[in-house]
């Protein structure tokens, strides 16, 4: 019945039935079929509003979806939900060079927004591997981070204005292009990072930045974590805001990924404890290159770097990044991947990594190794291991998240919570914070129709003390 009503609102051609969806993979990561009541594709904001108002009135659960590339089962349906795809809302306006902003609809991919900005001589500061499939709405709903967060911030920092539709169909629109807007509560931040649980994002005005004229990239080897971290401070101070990326790889990851099973070639000798990729993108290529090489040389001569290479061509630059970004070999090695996206203070990273290695050996000695790498400059590490028996994953989850809490870290740096990490949110958020999150959810979505079961469970109104009010 509700599907016929939705077809009446947006046209039958834009309502895909359960059977039509059955052959479609649930998300980017699995061959499991989609199990949902239907997928609906409204064509504009007014249609999104009408569909949500109707679903709210009927108690119909709705899961917003973009490119389905999230890593936390964020768009997973149990069976009776309706998937609400924003794919038809994919317009991108001409960038406004004066305010350095662009307005885009939620279904536009990150790559198309990047390309549109570049034509205007500007850069959109959000970038990650899934750029070709991930949508703006999904990336904002996940508060995605990625490869340039060190310079431009996460998705939260990219948004000047936002439009979202609440569960009852109310359109909340504040599409301003300003950097400064102190007109009361910053409502857009409720929706950014809320993983489709508080509203459906339909449009945003995005900040853009000057497009750099070139990139300088180096790979360095260290045997001392402190020396690698010190280089970050030096480059931040001396590269005048042009440092875009500062990535770290623990030796085990580097050795494997440059070995026969990986990319098969190592620009620097293997066997060091840490490897760093740093990249600066400036506006004066010859001056930038000279300054960059001087800084890398001084890291080598006085800063504790054991080896270093600066890419001399785009091909060499790609070869360096491939070591960091090639996960195929890792997937083959580990089979059942057990991976983590974590934040923690840079000072705690070394002892955290050692503690994980120690406890993993003690509690899961059958593990196939521990690969650690990440965005050092953002305080974000990615850990991957593999175990022969998938049943062991909960044990390793408890081990890693327990240690992350003990080291003052967060259980999610950029991939969000979804279903995968919901159980562990208590490791990073206090009972008061969890209770406030529930209050926000029940206020904005009292019927709990929006992406239910993701991020936080809501069984009824919750008091600040964390009790479910009767
Ligand atoms: C190869 C690869 C590399 C990646 N690298 C990174 C990385 O470096 N950094 C990083 O942060 N992430 C990374 N990701 C994950 C990244 O968060 C997602 O790819 C992206 O942000 C999600 O966009 P999407 O359109 O696919 O959203 P989906 O996966 O479709 O949805 C994600 C969540 O947002 C909700 N949602 C979707 N659209 C809307 C909307 N319009 N309004 C409200 N809620 C909505 C969904 O309900 C879901 O909860 C990577 C993923 C892949 C596959």
From TrEMBL:
<dbReference type="InterPro" id="IPR016171">
    <property type="entry name" value="Vanillyl_alc_oxidase_C-sub2"/>
</dbReference>
<dbReference type="InterPro" id="IPR016164">
    <property type="entry name" value="FAD-linked_Oxase-like_C"/>
</dbReference>
<dbReference type="InterPro" id="IPR006094">
    <property type="entry name" value="Oxid_FAD_bind_N"/>
</dbReference>
<keyword id="KW-0285">Flavoprotein</keyword>
<dbReference type="GO" id="GO:0022904">
    <property type="term" value="P:respiratory electron transport chain"/>
</dbReference>
<dbReference type="Pfam" id="PF01565">
    <property type="entry name" value="FAD_binding_4"/>
</dbReference>
<dbReference type="GO" id="GO:0016491">
    <property type="term" value="F:oxidoreductase activity"/>
</dbReference>
<dbReference type="Pfam" id="PF02913">
    <property type="entry name" value="FAD-oxidase_C"/>
</dbReference>
<dbReference type="InterPro" id="IPR051264">
    <property type="entry name" value="FAD-oxidored/transferase_4"/>
</dbReference>
<dbReference type="InterPro" id="IPR016167">
    <property type="entry name" value="FAD-bd_PCMH_sub1"/>
</dbReference>
<dbReference type="InterPro" id="IPR036318">
    <property type="entry name" value="FAD-bd_PCMH-like_sf"/>
</dbReference>
<dbReference type="InterPro" id="IPR004113">
    <property type="entry name" value="FAD-bd_oxidored_4_C"/>
</dbReference>
<dbReference type="GO" id="GO:0071949">
    <property type="term" value="F:FAD binding"/>
</dbReference>
<dbReference type="InterPro" id="IPR016169">
    <property type="entry name" value="FAD-bd_PCMH_sub2"/>
</dbReference>
<protein>
    <submittedName>
        <fullName>FAD-binding oxidoreductase</fullName>
    </submittedName>
</protein>
<comment type="similarity">
    <text>Belongs to the FAD-binding oxidoreductase/transferase type 4 family.</text>
</comment>
<keyword id="KW-0274">FAD</keyword>
<keyword id="KW-0560">Oxidoreductase</keyword>
<feature type="domain" description="FAD-binding PCMH-type">
    <location>
        <begin position="31"/>
        <end position="211"/>
    </location>
</feature>
<dbReference type="InterPro" id="IPR016166">
    <property type="entry name" value="FAD-bd_PCMH"/>
</dbReference>
């Amino acid at each position: 019945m509700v599907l016929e009503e939705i077809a009446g609102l947006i046209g039958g051609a834009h309502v895909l039935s359960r059977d039509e969806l059955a052959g479609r993979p649930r998300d980017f990561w699995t061959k499991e079929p989609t199990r949902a009541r239907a997928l609906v594709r409204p064509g504009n904001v007014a249609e999104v509003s009408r569909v949500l108002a109707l679903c709210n009135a009927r108690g119909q659960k709705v899961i917003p979806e973009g490119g389905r590339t999230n890593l936390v089962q964020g768009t997973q349906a149990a069976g009776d939900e309706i998937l609400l795809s924003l794919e038809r809302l994919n317009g991108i306006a001409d960038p406004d060079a004066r305010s350095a902003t662009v307005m885009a609809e939620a279904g536009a991919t990150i790559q198309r927004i990047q390309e549109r900005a570049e034509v205007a001589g500007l850069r959109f500061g959000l970038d990650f591997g899934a750029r070709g499939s991930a949508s703006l709405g999904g990336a904002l709903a996940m508060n995605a981070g990625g490869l340039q967060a060190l310079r431009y911030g996460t998705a939260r920092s990219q948004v000047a204005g936002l439009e979202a539709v609440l569960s009852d169909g109310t359109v909340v629109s504040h599409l301003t292009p300003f950097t400064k807007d102190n007109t009361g509560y910053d409502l857009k931040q409720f929706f950014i990072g809320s993983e489709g649980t508080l509203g459906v994002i339909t449009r945003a005005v995005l900040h853009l930045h000057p497009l750099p004229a070139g990139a300088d990239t180096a790979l360095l080897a260290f045997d001392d974590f402190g020396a690698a971290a010190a280089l970050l401070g030096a480059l931040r101070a001396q590269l005048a805001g042009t440092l875009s990326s500062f990535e770290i790889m623990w030796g085990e990851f580097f050795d494997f990924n440059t070995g026969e099973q990986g990319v098969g070639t190592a620009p620097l000798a293997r066997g060091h404890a840490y490897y760093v990729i740093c990249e600066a993108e400036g506006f004066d290529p010859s001056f930038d290159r000279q300054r960059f090489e001087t800084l890398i040389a001084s890291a080598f001569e006085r800063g504790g770097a054991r080896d270093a290479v600066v890419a001399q061509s785009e091909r060499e630059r790609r070869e360096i990044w491939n070591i960091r970004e090639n996960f195929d070999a890792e997937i083959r090695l580990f089979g059942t991947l057990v991976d983590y996206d974590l934040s923690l203070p840079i000072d705690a990273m070394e002892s955290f990594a050692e503690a994980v290695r120690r406890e993993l050996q003690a509690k899961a000695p059958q593990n196939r190794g521990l690969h650690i790498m990440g965005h050092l400059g953002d305080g974000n590490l990615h850990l991957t291991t593999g175990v022969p028996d998938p049943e062991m994953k909960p044990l390793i989850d408890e081990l890693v998240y327990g240690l992350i809490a003990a080291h003052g870290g967060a259980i999610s740096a950029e991939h969000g919570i979804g279903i995968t990490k919901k159980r562990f949110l208590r490791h990073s958020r206090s009972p008061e914070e969890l209770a406030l999150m529930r209050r926000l959810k029940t206020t904005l979505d009292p019927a709990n129709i929006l992406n239910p079961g993701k991020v936080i469970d809501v069984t009824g109104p919750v008091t600040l003390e964390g009790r479910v009010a009767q």
